[in-house]
Amino acid sequence: MRWKKGRRSSNVEDRRGQRVGRGVKMGGGVTVLVVVAVLLLGGDPSALLQMAGETPATQTRAPTAAEDETADFVTVVLGSTEDVWSQIFAAAGQSYREPTLVLFTDMVQSACGMNTAATGPFYCPPDQKVYIDVGFFRELARIGGAGDFARAYVVGHEVGHHVQNLVGTSGAVRQAQARSGSQAEANRLSVALELQADCYAGVWAHQINQRGGDVVLEPGDVEEGLRAAAAIGDDRLMRSAGRAANPESFTHGSSEQRAMWLRRGLETGNVEACDTFGQ
Questions:
Q1: Is residue 43 domain-shared with residue 150, that is, in the same domain?
Q2: Residues 30, 127: one domain?
Q3: Separation CA 153–CA 85 (nearest Å)
């Protein structure tokens, strides 16, 4: 993938190397009761109040050279998604609100709570931020998703979730899941949402190739992306964990589905072709 001359996005928070400690947290009612108890015993509650409101502590370390290059790459990919989605939204008479991408190591605090690297890359609708642990790309390569476009696909997928949030798809799915009364139906809707984000990643990749700018795919990149999509299919991940692949328990889609919808976006470059809910 050709990318080094690409525009760097300014919407990146670099939290790499920060070790997030879990501060002491108490609910308001519990805090009041404990403070009253301290006062009755003749103590000073000020230290307790300071502890209860304390934010997570951090330790920092210097990122490695490999992490720096990954961060630079992700920043370029994000800038490219901003350019593409801004044009797509403008063509529809809308304005694209760019997400922020947070790079972190091991653990991160978001508006969606405290998340560890085990969560994998994720998008948090309340703060409209994409969160990526740079170490995830090493794991992705280990399970068969190596290469620049494999990493770019991950960024494109999470930005796809941001697009879904902006246009109201995510909210509509959450409401439908709440009404469904069935875990199987809720999972089906979750799979449709994830596959659409895969398709949106393909739309972005198609568009950068059409533009022929400083970020563009090279021979072999499409295959890298398809391998990455297949590598993180629910069926493959379940089997690698020693579990039977039960389609009703899928939340992201099978390897075949994920590769198919990424390919559809890549081939059409058309957002309307990404109607996973109508399939």
A1: no
A2: no
A3: 15
